[in-house]
Amino acid sequence: MSNISYRPQDAQQKDFAKAVRRNVNAFFKEQALSTKGDGPFVVKAMLMLAVYFVPFILVTTIPMSAWWGSTCAVISGVGMAGVGMSVMHDGVHGSASRHTWVNDLMGASMYLMGSSVLTWRIQHNGAHHTHTNIDQVDGDLDSRGLLRFSEHATLKPVHRFQHMHAFFFYGFLTITKLAVDFATLAAFNKDGSTAAQKADPKREMIKLIVLKVVYIAVFIVVPLVFSGFLWWQVLLGFFVMHFVASVILGTVFQLAHIVEGTVQPMPDIQGVIPNDWTVHEMMTTSDFARNSRLLTWFTGGLNHQIEHHLFPHVCHVHYRRIAPIVERTAREHGVPYNNIPTFGAALASHVRRMKQLGRPANDKAA
């Protein structure tokens, strides 16, 4: 099913695709702006990395109570989420800087969270961005049994109340990835995805093993040796850090695609989606809290998900300014533009959508 093609039935869809790119490109040209982040982005990256690592350093070097240790774990979790959304994400997309080495360096911050850049690039940059919200292709829709993100996935009794327990399970996102990366990379090695990235499968598996060992040594062994906390307190702090980061990341990710107004189309038997790819992205993606500068700053512009999907090589620091251009162009061409005005409204919409996905389509109680 990965051999999916996009064939618009309406010529106006192609007109929109051309117009939105022309209008956004004109904006950068008229303003004499680079599409990258460069200086301001690097400053932000340093700040996010500090929020992640400074509390960890304090725990390992300064005697403190369990309460302060827990506080540091929570702050590090917030920092970890910030690094993932505001540093790694742009780096892997090549939008952080005009210099490739800077993008590679920022993207490598994924290693600081114990995860693989290669598997992320294949799953996120490849499958998710290319075939957004398409079941069995977009890995972000993988239900993993307890949660049902796709209306095309098998409905199970456990899904009936998923709108209540979903956020708890979001908390296991990053800590699960620590182990799942091995199976993911093995699958990519087998299906040729690793080779397609011009990477050697065996070498990548060795790198992944070394990465995990070093990560565990730094974040678990070092605190065990140098902090005054007991082994179970260190493990608990490690879990709390990942849980906090995962709840933030999982929630932000879902508010962009699993909300009311977004669709989950399926290709026909020939693997064809009857829309232009650009229009498909508009139909499957949503912005939220677009006017919140603080949320935009912290989430690395992931609340401007439409702009990110259409222009992944543009740094998130520009999304706030190009969003009105994209919306205006969409309205002019009769293309849907999903924008939920506040974070609270987006959160409520996600809960309602998860409730719908947890019930049969004809269940009026949904």
Describe the structure.
The chain has helices at residues 11-31, 38-61, 66-93, 100-107, 117-130, 162-170, 173-191, 193-196, 201-226, 231-254, 277-284, 293-298, 305-310, 319-332, 343-357; strands spanning 5-6, 272-273, 287-288, 339-340. The model has no long low-confidence stretch (mean pLDDT 94). The protein is built from 15 helices and four strands. The protein has one domain (22-179, 225-357). With 366 residues, the protein is mostly helical.
Largest sheet: 2 strands, parallel
Portion in strands = under 5%
Structural class call reads mainly alpha
| Overall outline | globular
Question: What's the mean pLDDT score?
Answer: 94
Based on CA atoms alone, the radius of gyration comes out at: 21 Å
Q: What is the straight-line distance between the termini?
A: 30 Å
Order of helices and strands: EHHHHHHHHHHEHEHHHEH
What is the strand tally? 4
List the total number of helices.
Answer: 15
- Compute the number of structural domains: 1
Give the strand order, joined by hyphens, for the main sheet: 1-2
Weakly predicted, low-confidence segments:
none
List keywords for this structure.
mainly alpha; single chain; about 375 residues; two-stranded parallel ribbon; 4 strands
Task: Give me a quick take on this structure.
By secondary structure, this protein is an all-alpha fold.
List strands and helices in order, with pairings.
Blueprint: E1 5-6, H1 11-31, H2 38-61, H3 66-93, H4 100-107, H5 117-130, H6 162-170, H7 173-191, H8 193-196, H9 201-226, H10 231-254, E2 272-273, H11 277-284, E3 287-288, H12 293-298, H13 305-310, H14 319-332, E4 339-340, H15 343-357
Parallel strand pairs: 1-2, 3-4
Helix pairs in contact: 1-14, 2-3, 2-9, 3-4, 3-10, 6-10, 6-15, 7-9, 9-10
